[in-house]
Amino acid sequence: MNPQDHKKEYKAEEKRISETVSKIKHRIAVFSGKGGVGKTTVSINLAYALQSKGLSTGLLDADIMGPNVAKMLNIDGDLIFLNEKIFHLKNMVLR
After folding, report:
1. pTM, rounded to two decimals
2. Structural domain count, the chain
3. Residue 94 counted as domain residue
């Protein structure tokens, strides 16, 4: 792929992500500068609680050094790389 095609594809993907994110009504961020304080536990429990109230939820583990959401939800499987995007083999829906 030449650099111009790569740039076009990047811009199209950026626009798609922006449009998708703009449809999210509410966002809750759970963060701390310190590790081991329960951010993942709080995030998962919050997602489950909101889901139990009938709301649609999504959970993004942005911890690049040690993501634990998949581990805590017992999600295992291979990652799939497709056009420089990463997809998890298993999709997890909280119920």
Report:
1. 0.66
2. 1
3. no
Report the alpha-carbon distance of residue 74 to residue 71 in Å, rounded.
5
Q: Could you tell me if 68 and 40 are in contact, meaning their C-beta atoms sit under 8 angstroms apart?
A: yes
Could you tell me the residue range of the domain that residue 34 belongs to?
3-88
Confidence of residue 91 (pLDDT cuts 50, 70, 90): very low
- Provide mean pLDDT across the span 48-58: 92
Distance (Å, whole) CA 1 – CA 65: 31
Q: Is 50 exposed, middle or buried (0-12, 13-18, 19+ CB in 10 A)?
A: middle
Taking Cα atoms as reference points, which of 11, 20, 10, 21 lies closest to residue 84? Answer: 10
Task: Please give the single-letter amino acid code of residue 1.
Answer: M
